[in-house]
Design brief:
By secondary structure, this protein is an alpha/beta fold. The protein has one domain: TIM Barrel. Strands 1-2-3-4-5-6-7-8 form an eight-stranded parallel β-barrel, surrounded by six helices. Helix 5 runs parallel beside helix 6.
Length: 309
């Protein structure tokens, strides 16, 4: 395979472990030093994380590098990695070309996303001929896995090599429109998604109810809660306002009013309790949004390891 290893599928990782701890990293902004993200990766991988994911231009931001960073995680750090893939600005022909780049690099785990509009833009329209929804991207990936590629003119290819992508999707347990909340998930899994990762969530009861509702609709695929360390009540209130995610009273009350770097246990212990609540709620693992503080997240992962998860 051109010298590149074939990645292990996330669905296999989930099957082999009773509870996984994974992490999501963000590529540096265009022009920033690459070394910063690799130093973060060294800390997270060194903490024995089960797998990682690499975002793709969150919020429409200028961040290239998702594919090479995912490939480096797989080959250099020897950890399975999910490459986020957005179709917001692409037409199907471009989607196929970009996915083939992933395939040739040995990337097998794709998080299929529509993608966010650029910051400050409330109205969003796809390019002419492009996709409106993530489930349409899932359908195209499934087609590639079945060996069905787009035709171009009269040129025909014989003996096509199927792709073998493991397809994840984003799910939104606190989407304000309840009907859309479940309809969008159903579309994605009916199209061929194999697992989900939630938007940022801090309430294990909401997660549990969401998963139980999905099971009642015959969707039993693994759903990983996406969580991040909250450092203060002030930050928690910002998260609630910006992302529309609930922060339960017990967690809010356990946090200091302002960030206190001298007392890290004041934020680590409540976060570890949150992880335990997700475990009790039936989560197959947790997915940590690392953002800027890799050292603190590595400490949490190491503590979980020491406590036997």
């Amino acid at each position: 395979m051109l010298g590149y290893t074939i990645d292990k599928k996330i669905t296999d990782v989930l099957k082999e472990n009773t509870f996984t701890v994974s992490a999501e990293v963000i590529p540096p902004r265009n022009g920033e030093q690459q070394e910063d993200v690799f130093q973060k990766l060294k800390m997270i991988v060194g903490a024995k994380v089960d797998f990682l994911s690499v975002t793709k231009g969150a919020g429409g931001s200028l961040r290239g590098g998702s594919l090479p960073i995912a490939q480096a995680i797989k080959d250099y750090f020897s950890r399975p990695c999910i490459a986020h893939f957005t179709c917001r600005d692409l037409v199907p022909e471009e989607v196929e070309n970009h996915l083939m780049d992933h395939h040739y690099f040995g990337i097998r785990n794709i998080l299929a996303l529509r993608g966010d509009p650029p910051m400050g833009e409330s109205e969003w329209q796809p390019r002419e001929g492009g996709y409106h929804y993530a489930y349409q991207l899932v359908e195209q990936i499934v087609q590639l896995n079945d060996g069905h590629f787009l035709e171009r003119g009269n040129f025909k290819v014989s003996g096509r090599e199927k792709t073998d992508f493991c397809i994840g999707v984003a799910v939104y347990p606190e989407h304000p429109d309840i009907e859309e909340r479940y309809r969008f998930v159903e579309r994605k899994f009916s199209a061929g998604a194999e697992y989900g990762i939630t938007q940022m969530i801090f309430d294990a009861d909401i997660y549990h109810h969401f998963c139980e509702t999905l099971r009642s609709q015959n969707i039993a695929s693994p759903i990983l809660p996406g969580i991040r360390i909250l450092k203060s009540k002030k930050q928690a209130r910002v998260m609630k306002e910006r992302f529309g995610c609930s922060v339960p009273a017990w967690y809010m009350n356990a946090l200091p009013e302002e960030i206190n770097k001298e007392r890290p246990d004041d934020i680590v212990e409540p976060f570890l309790k949150l992880i335990e609540l997700f475990r009790k709620a039936g989560a197959p693992g947790v997915h940590l949004f690392v953002l800027s503080d890799a050292a603190l997240n590595a400490h949490v992962i190491q503590t979980l390891q020491q406590r036997g998860r």
